[in-house]
Amino acid sequence: MERSTLGLKLPEGMRDLLPGELASLEALEGKAIQVCKNWSYQKVATPGLEYRACVEPDANKEDRLYKFFDKNGHIVVLRPEFTTPIARMVSARQRGGIFPLRYCYSGDVYRNDSSRYREFRQVGVELVGSGSDIADAEVIALAVEIMKALEIRNFQLSLGHNGIFSGLAQEMNFSPKLREELEDGIARKDMVKMESVISQSELPEAAKDLLLSMPHLTGKEDVLNKLQSWNHIPAIRRAVESLRTIYLYLKDFGVQEFVSLDLGILRGFSYYTGAIFEGYLPGIGSPVIDGGRYDGLYSDFGINLPATGFAVNLGIMIEQLQDYEVENADILVYGQSPGAVIKRCRELRKGGKKVEMALGYITDTDARKMASSRGISELERVES
Amino acid sequence: MTKNFITIALPKGKLLEDSVRLLNHAGIDCRSVEEDSRKLMFELTGSEARIIICRPTDIPTYVEYGAADIGFVGKDTLVEQNLDVAELVDLKFGYCRFVVAMPEETKPPKLADGSYDLSVLNHKRAATKFPRVAQMFFSERGMQVTPIKLHGNIELAPRVGLAEMIVDIVSTGTTLRQNKLVEIAPIMEATTRMIANRVSYRIKYERIQGLAEKIRELI
Questions:
Q1: I need a surface site. Which of A198, B46, B81, B164 has the fewest CB within 10 A?
Q2: What CATH number corresponds to the domain at position B30?
C-alpha cells in the first residue's frame, strides 16, 4: 500500500543512520567498549522494554517515558537508561554473584521529551558491590580514559557530591516542604527560586550561606577547604573526606588534570547518593557523561548493594566527532556467466575477502568505473 | 574563539532597551546594538562576546541547545516552556502578572472571603498564549478547564465565544479594561531573568558568574 504523508516521516527525535554515520558511531562504540573490557568490565545487555514499575516506581511522577500497554494491561516503557534495568537484572540473577561486579553496556535509550535526540546510543559501566572511594575513582578514571580513547580533547569532567545537601537537610531537619522546594529548585536549576526559598526559610544563617554558596564552590582541591567549618556534621565531613580521597586517587590514575571539583553540579535527586560527576564538551548543551554513586537503588530491588557507574551519551556528541570511513569491498567480481561469477565470489569470500558481485554482465570500462566510484581497489573478470 | 567567549541572547521588543542598558553598566559595551535595529548579530570585539537578537519566546531554546551561553528572558516564557536551562539572576525589570480574566458580565459570584468562586468555571475554555501555565493552574485546583492556544489578541476570544475566559500576562491592566475584562484570579508574578546553558555555566563558570555578580550589584 502506498504510504500516507505520515508514513514517509519519522517520529520527532528519531533519525536514520547512513553507512558513514553508522560507521562513526560503531567505531566510537567499539573503542569505548574496548576500554571498558581492558578494565575488566564485562558486557551485558538488557531488553528494550521494561515495566514502568521497574524504571519509575512512583506512579504519580511526571516522566519522559515512551509508554505502551502489554496484553495484560501493564504499562511497559522503552528503556530510558541502563542503570535501573541492570540493578533489576543483578537482583534477579546475580544475588550470589562474586562482588564487586563490573558490567558495561552499549545500546540505545529512549526519552520522550523535547530534545533533539530522543533515541540515542549510550555506552556505560556499573560497578556493583563496592562502597569504597576507590571504586568511585575507578569509574571516573575509566570515563576519562574512554574520552581519551575517543580522541576527544577538550572535555571537562566535574565532580561533586550529593551528600552535602542531604547531610545538611538531615542535620538541620529541613521540613518536607522546604526540602521539596529546594530539590525542585535544584532539579530545575532555578537559582532565583532557591535563593528566595533559602533566604525566607528559618534556617540558621550559616546554613543559608552554605546552601547559597554551593553552586559557586568550583575549582581544584581548595574548594573542599571552604567546607572545613562544617566538619561537625558527620554526613558533610564524610562527603568532603570522600571527595578528597577520590581526588587523590585520580592523581594516581593519571587523570586528575581532566577533573575539577564542582559542588554546584545541579541535578535532580533521582537515585544518586554520593559522589556524582558530569562530563562536558564545549558546543554541546547537555552533559555528555552522567555518573555517580547510587547506594539506595539496589535495596529497592531487595538486595542491599552499594554501586557506582556512568553513561557516556555517545549519540548526542556524534556530530562533533571525526568521520570514520565506511569499509569498502576489497574486490569487484564480474563476468558473463552468473554461475561462474557466483562461484568465484564464494571462493574469494571463503578466503576472507570482502567481495562485491556485479549483478549482470558489465563491460571492463563500466567495471573500472563502478569499482572506482565505490572505492574498490581490485577487479576480477571471470571467464566462463 | 577563546574559552571565555560568550554568546548572549537578548529579546527583541520592549525588554531589549533595559537589557542593553544593564549589560553596558556591567561592562559589556553593547552600544552598537542600539544603533541598528535590523541587525540580528553583533560581534563585541572588545568584550569577548557577541549578542544575538531573538524573539523572546525563542531565547530558552537558543540557551538550552547551547547556541547561546546566556540569555535574558521573562519568567513567563520560562515557566511556559519548561526547558532545561539554569536560571541565575532575577533582573527585576519587565514585571508582569499571570491572571485569569473574564468579561465583566459573566464573572463568577464571589465567595465569603472576597475571592471569585472559580469552581463554576469547570468545563469551560480558557484562551491563552500560555497553555502550560493555564493547565497547571487549573489542574492543581482539580478543575477541568480546556486551554485554547492562541498566538495573540487573546482578549478577542471571549467576545466571540471562542472561550469563556483568558489566561494572560498583564502589566498595567489597561488592555483588560479596554476589553471590558476583569481579573478573577491571580496566577503568578514574573520578571526578566538571566539564564544560562547548564553546560556553559559550568565550563565558563568564572566568566558567566562574574557577569551575573556584576549584574546583581546593579539591580
A1: B46
A2: 3.40.190.10
Sign of CA dihedral A297, A272, A172, B87: negative
DSSP 8-state class, residue A325: P
Residue A336 near residue A384, CB atoms below 8 Å: yes
Q: Is there a domain that residue A3 lies in?
A: no
Q: Hey, what's the cell of B197?
A: 546553558
* SS3 label, residue A143: helix
Q: Are residues A68 and A152 in the same domain?
A: yes
A138-170: per-residue pLDDT in tens? 999 999 999 999 988 889 999 999 888 888 888
The average confidence (pLDDT) of chain A is 91
Specify burial of residue B2 (Cβ count, 10 A radius: 0-12, 13-18, 19+). exposed
Contact B199 A193 (CB under 8 A): no
| Consecutive H or E run containing A314 | helix A314-317
| Whether the Cβ atoms of residue A33 and residue A104 lie closer than 8 Å to each other | yes
- Does residue B75 lie within any of the structural domains? yes
Domain of residue A375 covers 331-382
Is A116 part of any domain?
yes
Q: Does B205 touch chain A (CB under 8 A)?
A: yes
Helix-then-strand count for chain B, H and E = 9, 11
- The alpha-carbon gap from B7 to the nearest alpha carbon of chain A, in Å, equals 11
Mean pLDDT of A47-66: 90
Q: For the segment A320-370, what is each residue's pLDDT rounded down to a tens digit?
A: 776 777 889 999 999 999 999 999 999 999 999 999 999 999 999 999 999
* Per-residue pLDDT tens over the stretch B18-50: 999 999 999 998 888 877 778 899 998 888 999
| pLDDT of A268 strictly over 70 | no
Cell numbers 586517587 correspond to what residue? A249
Same domain, residue pair A181 and A211: yes
Residue B204 and residue A307: Cα distance in Å, rounded? 31
Say what the pTM is. Answer: 0.83
pLDDT at A186: 80
Inspect the interface and report whether the beta carbons of A191 and B89 lie closer than 8 Å. Answer: yes
d(CA A3, CA B26): 57
Q: Say whether A285 and B197 touch across the interface (CB within 8 A).
A: yes
Quick check: B205 and B88 in contact, CB under 8 A? Answer: no
Could you tell me the pLDDT band of residue A269, with boundaries at 50, 70 and 90? low
Please name the amino acid found at residue B184.
Answer: I
Among the listed ranges A65-79, A239-253, A255-269, A270-284, which one has the minimum average pLDDT value? A255-269
Band of pLDDT at residue A266, cut at 50, 70 and 90? low
Mean pLDDT, chain B, integer: 91
Q: From CA B17, how far away is CA B29, in angstroms rounded?
A: 13
Main-chain phi, psi angles of B65, to 5 degrees? -80, -10
Q: In whole angstroms, what is the distance from residue B132 CA to residue A238 CA? A: 42
Cβ-Cβ contacts under 8 Å, A191 against chain B? 86-89
Total tally of structural domains belonging to chain B: 2
From CA A85, how far away is CA B137, in angstroms rounded? Answer: 36
